[in-house]
Design brief:
This protein has helices at about 10-40, 45-70, 90-120, 125-140, 145-150, 155-165, 185-215, 225-260, 265-275, 275-290, 290-305, and strands spanning about 70-75, 80-85, 180-185. It has about 325 residues and is mainly alpha-helical. The N and C termini lie far apart (about 55 Å).
């Protein structure tokens, strides 16, 4: 088998250097995101404060696993690759990465559900079963990717089959690590991806639709026009914030299924999309939620003499709504 054409952008050295830079940039951004959530969340977002905190924690866990500890160098169309991080355990980090991805999407579902419950469902049957639904959703988070790990092939035979799937030998790391083969057939990983995608997607889509529908017809439920406008802006902000998850998770993940040719530069782009998710998600959170955005702009407003921003608390009781675990 011939070696692939040399290209620095397709090399493991480029991937490792890029991920280290991303980690260095992401660390202060994540810390700033924590500060905004804990210290700058206003009263009308009180019920969402710790849900945003929970979502932010899942994003950071994913970033640390993917961009620092794991650094996966995948070799599609073979379902195999190397871990370039400080700890050589690609199987473990693949499992953790999938778990944290589903943790992020489940946290998005819980955020939408909490908004729906507070505004529209405190006196419905959903009040009695919501905690069970939320707890069950988090229980299955570490289970999505677990079955496929019992089917990981014997590595010597798996490496032989994986090298045959490649048209040429890509640039490899010079640290002497062995190729890790996750699967020799696509069926198992495809089923795992479909399950891990479909359940949170259905959950998020259901409660997003319920929020939008009830906000459109909110006048009939007795909610004031001012409250509807504020909650509408908040739901829109959540939609924008979570759209980055859809773009930076769904597209790369499905590339594992549909990529049937070898292009190591494209493989690096797939994992790069995962790596920048944490930075993108935090920045979008800060700039789409007005209280956080105003805090960022406040030094410039003081410098140029602009006034401060006042917030009006909506006429919806937040104290009665328990915050999901």
């Amino acid at each position: 088998m011939n070696f692939c054409e040399s290209n620095y952008l397709a090399s493991p050295e480029f991937l490792k250097t890029t991920f280290h830079i991303i980690t260095g940039i992401a660390t202060p951004i994540h810390a700033f995101g924590f500060y905004c959530i804990v210290c700058k969340t206003p009263a009308h977002m009180k019920s969402d404060k710790w849900l945003l905190f929970n979502l932010h924690c899942w994003c950071i866990c994913l970033d640390i696993t993917f961009s620092f500890l794991g650094i996966p160098y995948i070799l599609l169309p073979a379902i195999a690759g190397y871990g370039l991080g400080p700890i050589e355990s690609p199987g473990l980090f693949f499992y953790l990465a999938v778990t944290f991805i589903t943790g992020v999407t489940t946290s998005v579902f819980v955020t939408f559900e909490n908004r729906f419950f507070i505004l529209f469902a405190q006196k419905t049957f959903w009040r009695n079963i919501r905690r069970f639904a939320i707890v069950f959703s988090y229980i299955i988070v570490p289970l999505y990717d677990l079955p496929i790990h019992f089917l990981i092939p014997e590595q010597d035979k798996g490496r032989e089959l994986s090298w045959r799937k490649l048209q040429c030998i890509p640039q490899l790391s010079n640290d002497g690590r062995q190729l890790f083969v996750f699967a020799t057939e696509l069926l198992g990983p495809a089923i795992t991806i479909i399950l891990a995608e479909s359940v949170p997607t259905i959950q998020c889509g259901t409660f997003l639709a319920l929020n939008i529908y009830n906000l459109i017809f909110a006048r009939q439920s007795g909610i004031s026009k001012k409250t509807v406008q504020m909650q509408h802006r908040l739901v829109v902000a959540f939609i924008i914030q979570t759209s980055v998850t859809l773009i930076l998770f769904v597209v790369p993940v499905n590339s594992f299924i549909y990529f049937d040719y070898q292009n190591q530069f494209h493989n690096n782009l797939i994992v790069f999309a995962f790596a920048v998710h944490g930075i993108a998600s935090t920045l979008i959170m800060v700039f789409v939620h007005r209280p956080y955005r105003d805090f960022v702009y406040s030094p410039f407003r003081r410098l140029f003499g602009s006034g401060s921003t006042a917030y009006v608390i909506p006429a919806v009781s937040m104290s009665k709504a328990p915050i999901p675990p």
